[in-house]
Write a structure and sequence with these properties.
Length: 400
């Protein structure tokens, strides 16, 4: 057995420092006992490392309580840097600025017709990002990176938005390059369902869960999949496209070219058409959900039918991936048990009994903020740890 050299001792210490910083960065804040459980390091080692990180300004330690006992909460220093989240929806642009301690410092939403023009959308995003960073009073040099959410799959190889049928005005656009070129900052991009999953995992209804699916029903139907605590995108970036599970081979033709996809029974443009005759042409999904909650029988029936169809997609996910939690996001989640009950009913009917028993189906805790908070979480998950340990290193080099 070889004796450890001073060099190996030093590299082990450095690795332990990075392990603690990574655990705190991903969780936002942890007690020292939680850090020990997360990293596998001893309590004494964690205590020494936290003291060292506090002394060099990497973390801040504040009194808290855990299980009724006094404890110390460890988070990354509030002045270590800031991250920016940008979420493009079909009818809105939402931007948030947060720090590395998972505190949201500024946030704003604007109505915008994203479908009309990519250039117009990016113009508005550039202006809003600049305004919110200025509002925090923190210098632009402190921005570590930007997370960007778009409502469609991103081609992993090219970075181009995959389905132009969702955003007709965005054909051939590389969203990451476009925003990075305008802001002069590193940008990470992902689709809205994946970011919704990240948002709920880090900030909302998925906290403490290792395996979950975030389901978003809007212009399309997508699932953000978290496996063992990490987003699973698949080699081409299209994992989670459950909207194209076939429910009826003789059903309506979908934009993907197939018939009877789940999307053709659940997406807004198909569902609202069912109520056009009785409720007029101006009905929206939020209004449909509101009327259902107020007892409107037609809207209740349609919401329940959508829930049953979504539940069939969830049952497929259950059988293949066996997640412990499904989080429903988007406007439909506001219907509460009117939609969650039928989802659970379908899951119990079509999923393997053991998988169905282990599954909790819950509404998202973040509402319309899930994607923009997920964009913040995307930067926090992608940034490296080593430069956080070197106060003199430029923040923008903190990426692997």
């Amino acid at each position: 057995m070889h004796a450890q050299t001073p060099g190996s001792q030093s590299s082990l210490h450095r690795a332990n420092l990075e392990r603690v910083v990574r655990a705190v960065r991903l969780a936002g804040s942890l007690t020292q006992a939680e850090i020990a459980r997360t990293t596998g390091l001893s309590a004494a080692t964690v205590s020494n490392i936290v003291r060292e990180l506090r002394d060099n300004g990497t973390v801040q330690v504040t009194p808290t309580s855990s299980g009724g006992r006094r404890a110390r909460s460890v988070s990354l220093s509030g002045d270590a840097g800031i991250v920016v989240g940008v979420d493009f929806g079909h009818s809105h642009l939402r931007v948030a600025v947060g720090n590395l301690a998972h505190q949201v410092l500024a946030e704003q939403t604007e109505p915008i017709d994203v479908d009309a023009s990519a250039a117009q959308g990016f113009d508005r995003a550039e202006e809003l990002v600049g305004r919110l960073i200025a509002a925090t009073g923190i210098g632009v040099d402190k921005v570590i990176g930007v997370g960007l959410g778009v409502p469609g799959p991103i081609d992993v190889a090219t970075g181009v938005l995959g389905s132009t049928a969702i955003l007709p005005g965005w054909g051939g656009i590389n969203p990451r390059e476009e925003l990075s070129g305008r802001l002069g900052m590193p940008v990470h991009v992902d689709n809205d369902a994946n970011l919704g999953a990240l948002g709920e995992l880090v900030w909302g209804g998925g906290r403490g869960v290792k395996d979950l699916a975030y389901i978003k029903v809007a212009s399309g139907v997508g699932a953000g999949l978290v496996i063992n605590g990490r987003i699973y995108r698949g080699p081409g970036g299209t994992a989670g496209e459950i909207g194209h599970i076939t429910l009826d081979e003789s059903g309506p033709v979908c934009r993907c070219g197939n018939r009877g996809c789940l999307e053709t029974f659940t997406a807004a443009r198909y569902v609202l058409e069912l109520l056009r005759g009785s409720h007029g042409p101006d009905l929206t999904v939020p209004r449909m959900v509101q009327l259902a909650r107020e007892g409107d029988p037609g809207c209740r029936r349609v919401v329940a039918d959508v829930g049953r169809h979504v539940g069939m997609g969830v049952a497929n996910l259950c059988n293949v991936l066996n997640p412990s939690r499904v989080v429903l996001g988007g406007d439909l989640a506001e219907a509460g048990e009117l939609v969650l009950g039928p989802i659970r009913e379908s899951v119990s009917r079509y999923a393997i009994p053991s998988a169905a028993r282990q599954l909790a189906v819950v509404p998202g805790a973040l509402g319309g903020r899930a994607e923009v908070l997920g964009a913040l979480a995307l930067v926090l998950s992608e940034m490296g740890d080593s430069t956080l340990l070197t106060a003199s290193a430029p923040a923008t080099l903190a990426f692997r």
